[in-house]
């Protein structure tokens, strides 16, 4: 009984300070970070759904997809196709090559839809 209580108390002393560090600052605290220095950002959208904004220097910047979702889906699909094509031995080579090719193809497909213009 004493051992469980001691372990629970030790875990609580480690978890509670970490939870307080991730809490939002109070309403009266001054803002810090990018918005405090540069003001609020207002995004606009292009016809194909890409968000962009105008910086303080007058240039336009866009927020586009980095292709991570396409990379993961392409790798999974490519691994399955590579495994099905390589029918000899343990089929690891086909799976690895298929995953790599599918990942590259999926990433490029997803990134090609988000051009800033």
Automatic annotation (TrEMBL):
InterPro entries: Gly_zipper_2TM_dom (IPR008816). The keyword Manganese does not apply. Keywords: Lipoprotein, Signal. Residues 70-110 form the Glycine zipper 2TM domain. Residues 1-23 form the signal peptide. It is found in: Cell outer membrane. It is a lipid-anchor. It holds the Pfam family Rick_17kDa_Anti. It comes from the Bacteria. Belongs to the rickettsiale 17 kDa surface antigen family. This is 17 kDa surface antigen. It comes from Novosphingobium aquae.
């Amino acid at each position: 009984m004493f051992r469980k209580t001691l372990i629970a108390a030790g875990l609580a002393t480690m978890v509670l300070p970490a939870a307080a560090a991730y809490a939002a600052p109070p309403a009266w605290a001054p803002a810090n970070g990018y918005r405090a220095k540069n003001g609020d950002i207002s995004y606009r959208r292009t016809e194909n759904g890409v968000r962009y904004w105008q910086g303080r220097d007058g240039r336009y910047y866009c927020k586009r997809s980095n292709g991570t979702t396409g990379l993961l889906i392409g790798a999974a699909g490519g691994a399955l196709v590579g495994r099905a094509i390589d029918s000899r031995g343990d089929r690891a080579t086909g799976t690895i090559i298929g995953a790599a090719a599918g990942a590259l193809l999926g990433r490029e497909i997803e990134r090609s839809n988000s051009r800033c213009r």
